[in-house]
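Dear Dr. H.,

I hope your travels went smoothly. While you were away I took the liberty of generating a structure for the chain from your last submission, since the lab meeting agenda had it listed for discussion. I wanted you to have the full record in hand beforehand rather than looking at slides cold. The sequence, exactly as received, is reproduced here:
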Amino acid sequence: MNRAPGIEENRRIAALLRDYAGLLEAQGADGFRIRAYRAAADTADRLDEPLSAIRDREGRDGLVALPAIGRGIAGAITQILDTGRWAQLERLQGELSPETLLRTLPGIGPALAEQLAEEDGIESLEELEAALHDPDVKLAGIGPRRRSALIPVLAERLGRAPGRGRARHGGPLPPVTLLLTVDG
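The corresponding predicted structure, in token form, is as follows:
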């Protein structure tokens, strides 16, 4: 079978997805997640077209349309295609410090990344996203403009649908404490 150029890139991405599934399994993670990453790896391996070509032509939605590839895995594939690296895998492997991970975001340099990790205890992109959506959380060095700029970047990076994690009126979701008070 004559495969298109770039198929080796698919094999490399499939190997990274399998590595991630293996690390999840070794850490006793949920079997569903493990199977999802392995199924996505199988899809990447079977493609006769490079993932990069699909993404370039159809965007992330083109990746999500592939069997066994959801928004989160499409986000991982996009990061690998764009940077050659996958921060989530590196974190799981213990190769990426929180400061290095945070510095992968636009507008966060070494000093702010260290401040977020050390003073605010932010160790993952998910933690930063949650903090940015909570109006009660004040992060040193993150004002309203930087907060507004980071929220869509994190949504894209984490494979979230636009607007997910936000109330319909466009504002942040109310804090859990308020919901518990109202519900109680």
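Two observations you may find useful: Residues 164-170 have pLDDT under 50 and may be disordered. Residues 121 and 127 are 9 Å apart (CA to CA).

With kind regards,
E. W.
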